Amino acid sequence: MQSLCPNKEVCGSCSWSHIPYEKQLQQKVNEINFSFKLHKLDLQLKEILPSPKTSHYRNRMDFVIDFEGRVGLRQKGKWWRVIDNHTCFISDEKIEELFHIVRDWAQNAGLTFFDRKYHHGLLRYAVIRTTTTGESMITIVTSQPKDDSENEQLTKALSNLSKLVTRNSILATLIHSINKTTSDVSHGGEVHIILGKGYIIEEINGYKYKITPNAFFQTNSHAAKLLMDTVLEFAETAIRLPRFARNDKSTNPSDTATSSRGENQRNDLPETLQLSNSPSPQHSNTTTLQPTTPITILDLYSGSGFFTIPLADKFNANTIGVEIVKDAIEDAKENNKLNNTNATFIAMPSEDYDWSELNPNLVILDPPRSGLRKTALSQLVTLQPDNLIYVSCNFKNFSRDMQTLQKIYEVKKMRGIDMFPHTPHVELVTLLTKKNREIPRIC
Question: Taking the model in full, what pTM does it have?
Answer without folding.
Answer: 0.85
